[in-house]
TrEMBL record:
Family as reported in the entry's similarity comment: Belongs to the LysR transcriptional regulatory family.
Protein name, as recorded: LysR family transcriptional regulator
InterPro entries: LysR-type_TF_proteobact-type, LysR_HTH_N, LysR_subst-bd, WH-like_DNA-bd_sf, WH_DNA-bd_sf
Span of domain HTH lysR-type: 6-63
Amino acid sequence: MDNTGLSLDRMRTFVRVAERGNLSMVARELGVGQSTVTRHLNELEQAVGVPLLSRTTRRVTLTDEGSRYYTNCLQILRLVEQAAEEARDARQAPAGAVRLSCTAALGVMHITRLIFDFQDKHPDIRVDLNLTDERIDLVREGVDVALRLGPLADSAMKLHALGESHRLLVGAPSYLSVHGWPEGPADLSRYETVIMSNVAGSDQLVLSSPDGTSLMIPVSGKLRVDHGLAARKALAAGRGIGPAHLWLVHDLLDDGQLEVVLGDYRPLPVPVSLLIVPERAAIARVRLLVDFLVAEVSKLPGIRPS
């Protein structure tokens, strides 16, 4: 078989096997016999001319060549899907699925609610919301749009800057009543700090002073967490002080469960961005969700233009 014998069906079979690592599972999903799945893979490898998969009795894994081929297959299949979707979009209201990845705490606190509003406006659009603080490979994971906090490395994704998320140094009245209020930034080193273990450099608190200079204060604490919602709980429970995004704690500040500490000294703001897979940006339902998020995220507490 030469390359003209390749088919999209065989590529789809290969992609599913690569993602699931199990031939019988893929056969059940496709509603075919396992021998059919095996034949499709063999024909594909024969056409490509290199082994794409390494098979054992329990697991199927990608070879180095298979891993590169898998990434290319994803792009090809998504372009085919995009072509069909754009043709349909020209004739009818946008429908189908958009997969959105979002920083976990922001997703739980605010983005989920915004998705409800979006779907009320566009009831035929399904949103698959993936909440994670990991910097996932959008193409490999099949994600269309990602909402991210923090600086981003160079990327082939389309970037839409939404602004900056402003932060405050906060603590619970119960903690401050026992340990007292710090009189200045230098005092912070003797306080318990709730530390985010998944944030680089979190053992150093960087504060912007009233005159615009930056101060670096070494901090420590007996509690380290890797999730914003856990940090919110710990701060409200009086386990120490710490920096927090305003959107994460605005309600706790309003009802007095948290207080602002050293309000003239602010932790540096964090960029908020949308990453969009370029091949998906022109699809009507993806474009609608992106435009909606651009308008609504900027209204969240503490999110301001850069």
